[in-house]
Each structure stands twice: as structure tokens, then as C-alpha cells.
Amino acid sequence: MGKLGIFAIFLCSITMVVPLVFGVAEGPKEVEEWFHSVSNHHHPNQKVTKMHFYLHDVFGVTTKKVAKPNTTAKSPTFFGETFMIDNPLTVGPSQASKLIGRAQGLYGFSSMEEVRVTVAMNLVFTDGSYNGSSLTSLGHNPVLQPKCEMPIIGGSGIFRLARGVALLNTYSHDDIKGNTTVEYNVILQHY
Ligand SMILES: *[C@@H]1O[C@H](CO)[C@@H](O)[C@H](O)[C@H]1NC(C)=O
Ligand SMILES: *[C@@H]1O[C@H](CO)[C@@H](O)[C@H](O)[C@H]1NC(C)=O
Ligand SMILES: *[C@@H]1O[C@H](CO)[C@@H](O)[C@H](O)[C@H]1NC(C)=O
Predict the structure, then answer these.
(1) Structural domains in the chain plus CATH codes
(2) Is the CB of 98 within 6 Å of ligand 2?
């Protein structure tokens, strides 16, 4: 069950298994249009930055279980199981493509009724003009839903006072080894 739990994390688009159950999910284009419609005119000093990259979750290597109450084994939603992550971020979907940073933080199964995790992580950039800057994401991830949106609640360096939206989409998933690759589309306001 623990292993299934780790497989479920970051899986935001298991469309074969789970039908689209709520509303019309917005894609990166719709979110960008919405973003511009609300951010125009009000803050002329703010920049809007878009980012596209891939996160690699390698079971047992870049994601480690750090806590589990003895009741998790009996929980259908893995409630309580908690992981520490240091997942590479790359420009392309291959792990071998150019590294641009790492996603570092924690997530844990936080619902007794659904398979849902709370994620608190920093996207720490190590390349180019973003090198040394970071974004902080805090949100919940209903891992069995086909679409997943995470808030960006702050940042450091060139991303001071950033806020924005990250749309997650599972790009690939290996059931045997547990490697999961997640596509990120991020749009943010910052100064
Ligand atoms: C879990 O641990 C607590 C405290 O040690 C114990 O009282 C309880 O019986 C345990 N429950 C299970 C399901 O093992
Ligand atoms: C990023 O910044 C660090 C610290 O200044 C530096 O050591 C490193 O070479 C930089 N990396 C890249 C890819 O520019
Ligand atoms: C999973 O990731 C590990 C570590 O990067 C790698 O060695 C392994 O080949 C990957 N497995 C698959 C099926 O991609």
C-alpha cells in the first residue's frame, strides 16, 4: 500500500482510470488568459513570467518516506504517510535533459476520505538567470483527479513577492520502478 501511495503522488491525469468528474478543467492556455485578464492594468511594475519544465520523482531515491503512523496500513487513503523530496527539474521530459533546478520539500497524505496529499515545497533554480532564485508552492494535490493545480505562494531572488499558478500533468509513470515524470506549466507575477 505504501508503494501504491508513492505511485499515486503527482499523478494528476489518470484519465484511463478516473473520468473527468468535476467541471471543465482549465489547461495552461485558459489559465494564462485568466491570468492576464486579472493582472492587467493594476500593477504596471509587475512582470509576468511563464515557465515550462519537468519534475522527476524517482521512487526511493529522490523521494524518501520519512514518517508513517501505524494506522496508515489500515487506511484506504494512506492517511499520515509522509515523504521528503529532492526531485530534479529538467527542461525536457527525459531525466538526461538539462537540469534547471530541484523541487525540495515535503508531502503527506492528509485526507481520511480521499487519496489526497498536502505538498509544501520549494522549486530551487540552479541555471541561467534564475540561478539562486526559488519559488514556494503550498497546496493540496487530489492525486486521483485528472487535472491538478498548485498555488505558487512566494519566492526569493528575482521571484521576490511572486505569486502564481502551477498546472501539473503526469507525463509518464513506470509502475515497476515507480519513476514518475510530471510536466509543469507555471505562470506568475513578480517584480
Ligand atoms: C499503534 O500504536 C499505538 C501506540 O503505541 C498503539 O496503542 C496502537 O495499538 C497501535 N495500533 C495499531 C493498529 O497497531
Ligand atoms: C549558479 O550559481 C552558483 C552560485 O553562484 C554557481 O556556483 C554555479 O556555477 C551557477 N550555475 C550555473 C549553471 O550558472
Ligand atoms: C528511474 O530512475 C532511475 C534513476 O534516475 C534510473 O536509473 C532508471 O533507469 C529509471 N527507470 C526508468 C524505467 O526510467
Answers:
(1) 3-190 (2.40.480.10)
(2) no
Q: Is the CB of 73 under 6 A from ligand 1?
A: no
Ligand nearest to the CA of 133: 2
Ligand 2 site, residue 127, Cβ cutoff 6 A: yes
Q: What is the pTM of this model?
A: 0.83
Tally of CB atoms within 10 A around 153: 14
pLDDT in tens, 145-158: 767 899 999 999 99
Burial (0-12, 13-18, 19+ Cβ within 10 Å), 32: middle
Over residues 71-117, the pLDDT tens digits come to: 999 999 999 999 999 999 999 999 999 999 999 999 999 999 999 99
What is the C-alpha to C-alpha distance for residues 117 and 158, in angstroms, rounded to an integer?
A: 29
CB atoms under 10 Å from CB of 11, counted, come to 22
The sign of the CA dihedral 132, 135, 141, 144 is negative
Ligand 3 neighbourhood includes 58 CB (under 6 angstroms): yes
